[in-house]
Design brief:
36% of the residues lie in helices and 21% in strands. By secondary structure, the chain is α/β, with parallel strands linked by helices. The chain has a single domain, classed as Ribonuclease H-like superfamily/Ribonuclease H (Nucleotidyltransferase, domain 5). Helix 3 crosses helix 4. It is globular, with a radius of gyration of 16 Å. The two termini are 20 Å apart.
Length: 190
């Protein structure tokens, strides 16, 4: 068995649905490595990847766009082409993972995985570095630990000992780094 390399991911979009709306930015941060016995946290600010993409679809949800604070007109003019950005991200993931298995982690994973997997499969020449299912949902980890209905497992319900010290800014890289810290705190202690 290969060790896992956990890579925290966060995305900012201009709507809820890939293929109809556009991925505007994403951040990746190495959170930790697990060899089956020991989890070794990484400094989440050390190994990171960030990209702002050129929008590819015309439909925009103004509320979703407002969350990111990104200027869509500037991205249309100066954003990275999705083929270039997703190809570079896939190469980065495989490079930092080396012989380890790259595993995407996010809170909640469902949204970030949907976007990144769709964009990797659509635009990266090498496909997805996370294969078809190499992912782990932090919200599920918290939910299982919390022992509450899913409504009680949001970021707002995190107890003080689990809360990251970094702020949630809606910059995809800042938030990937913040969530990398959270992932380490959520890891089951043996």
């Amino acid at each position: 068995m290969r060790p896992d390399l956990y890579i925290s991911a966060d995305v900012e979009t201009d709507g809820p649905v890939p293929g109809k709306h556009s991925l505007l930015s994403f951040g990746l941060s190495v959170a930790a490595r697990f060899d089956g016995r020991r989890m070794t946290p990484s400094d989440p600010e050390t190994k990171t990847f960030y990209c702002e993409l050129r929008p590819v679809f015309d439909e925009v949800d103004p509320d979703a766009l407002a969350v990111s604070g990104l200027d869509r007109a500037k991205l249309l003019a100066n954003g990275t082409a999705p083929v270039e950005g997703m190809g570079a991200a896939a190469s980065w993931v495989l490079d930092v993972a080396g012989d380890d298995r790259p595993v995407m982690v996010a809170f909640p994973l469902a949204f970030d995985w949907l976007w990144l997997q769709w964009y990797f499969l659509r635009f990266s020449p090498s496909g997805s570095p996370f294969s078809f299912s190499s992912c782990l949902d932090m919200k599920t980890l918290f939910w299982a630990r919390q022992g509450s209905p899913l409504d009680g497992a949001g970021m707002g319900e995190l107890p003080p000992d689990l809360r990251p010290t970094r702020r949630h800014t809606h910059n995809a890289l800042d938030d990937a780094i913040e969530q990398a810290e959270l992932f380490v705190r959520l890891w089951p202690q043996h």
